[in-house]
Amino acid sequence: MVLQELGGKLSAALRKLQSTTVVDEEVVKAIITEITRALLESDVNIKVVMELKKNVEAKINRSEDASGASKKRLIQQAVMEELVAMLDPKTPPYQMKKGASNVIMFVGLQGSGKTTTIAKFAHYYQRKGWRVAMVCADTFRAGAFDQLKQNATKLRVPFYGSYTEADPVRIAEEGVEQFRKDRFEVIIVDTSGRHKQEDALFEEMREIQAAVQPDNCVFVMDATQGQAVADQARAFHEAVPVGSVVITKLDGHAKGGGAMSAVAATKSPITFLGSGEHFDDLEPFVASSFVSKMLGFGDFGSLLRELQDTNDPGMDPKKMMDRMTKGQFTLRDFYQQIQGVLKLGPLNKMMGGMMPGIPDTAQQKRFLYMMDSMRDDELDGKVDIAGNEKRVTRIARGSGTRVEEVQLLLRQHKAREKVVAQMGKSGMMNAATDPAMAAKMAQLMQNPNSRASQAAMSKMMSPQMLKQMGGRDGVAKRMREMGGMPGMAGGGGMDMASMMQAMGGGGAGAGGAGGGMDMASIMKMAQQMGMGGPPGGGRR
Question: How much is the pTM?
C-alpha cells in the first residue's frame, strides 16, 4: 500500500491512545505531536500541518466534558476528519457519462509516467465494460507512439497515431473525430510531456485542447517531487482547465504525503493513485477511504463498489447468498467467488493489507481450470468427488493440473463449506447480509455503554449466536470494547486486529468472562475462509 511508512506512524500513535487508561492533556499533546512529526517527515508542508494541528486541538477542546472511551473516540475521529480535509479540496471531479463519448486529455511533465498511466486508465474503464480508445498526440518524444501502441495492443484497445504526421494537433483532432464517429465512450488523448519553462510545448497543449475540446484534462504528477508539485500544478492550471489529478510513483516514496497535500491545496481533485508498472496498479482515490486504509482500518466500501461494478451478468449473487444463509456452499459458489475476486484486480491492495494470505492469481486461475473440468452435478454438490480417486485423476488430466492440486482445491472448498455451515446455523450470516439488521446494529453502536442498547443488541441475535458471544454479559462487554474503536461510533472503518481482540477479549485463548470466541478461533476461521494464510492448511 502507498505511504505505508506514514500510515504506520499515524496508526501507532492512535494505538497508543487506545492503550492509555487516562486521557489527560499531556497524553493528548504527546499524540498530536507524534502525528504532526510523522506528517512533516513525509514532506507535508509545515503550514498545512500546523493548520491540521490547530483544527484537531479545537475539536478536542470543544468537547472537554468527554472522558474515557468517548474522549479516545473523539480524538481518533478528529484526526481522521482533519487528514481527510487535508487531502480533499471539496472540488467534484468530472463524472464519466455512460453511452456518450468522454474525451479525456492527459497532460504532465516529462518522466511523470503519463503514457503508462494512460494504459492503466484505459484498462480501468475497459474492465468495467466501457468502450475505450487511445490517441497518441505525443510527437515530441521518440518512441512515444511505439509505447502507446504496445500498451494498447496488450490491452486490446483501439488506438490512433502516426509515424509520419508531425503535427500533434492534427493527429489529436483526427483521432478523436474517428473514435467519436465509432461511438467509443472513453477517448484518451496522450500529449507531449513538458516542463514549466517550455512555452512552445505549453502553447501546443493549448492548441490540442482547443481542437479536441476535451471533457476533462487530467494532470499526471510525479509524487517523488514532494510539495514542489504545487507550482507545477498551478502552471498547468493556467494553461488548460485541469479537472483532475493522477499521482504516480507513490509506491513507498517518502515525499508522497507532501505531494498529495500540495496538490489538494491547489483545489484540484485527486482521482487516481498510481504505484507500480502493471496495468492493475491504479487505485481510485477517495480521501476518506484512503485515510482509512492508510491507518490500517481497511476499506470495505471500495471493495463493495468494485464488486458491483465488475459483477458478471451470468452470476446470481442473490441465489448464492440465499444458499449461504442456509449454510450451503457448493463448488459452483466457490467458482463464482474466485471469478469475482479475479475481476477486482489486486484485492490485497484494495483491502489495505487486511486480508493477507489470499491465494495468488495464478493459483486461483488453476482452480477455475479444474472446476471447468467438472460435471454440473459435481459443481452443485450432488456428487462427492473427494472419495473418488479415479475421478480426481481425470479432472487433473482434463485441466492440465496435478492430482495434488485438485485435492488442495477440494480441501479448500470443504474448509469454506464448513465455516459457511457454522455461520448459517448461528445466524451470523443473516446478520451480515440483512441491511435492516446491519443498520439497526450500527444505530445501537452509537451508544455502546447504554444498557438499553446492549439489551436490544442481545434480542437481535439468535440463541446460538448469543451463546457464542457469551450471553448478554458477553455482548455488553464486546459492545463497550468495540465502542472505543474508530468507525464504530461515526467515521472511518475498523482495524481487523482490534476487532478480533475485542471479540476474543484480548488475545489467543482469551475467551474472557463472556466465554465468546477466542483469538485463535477467529484466526482459524479467517484462515479457513482464505483471509489469514493458505486455507485448509494446504500448500500454496
Answer: 0.60
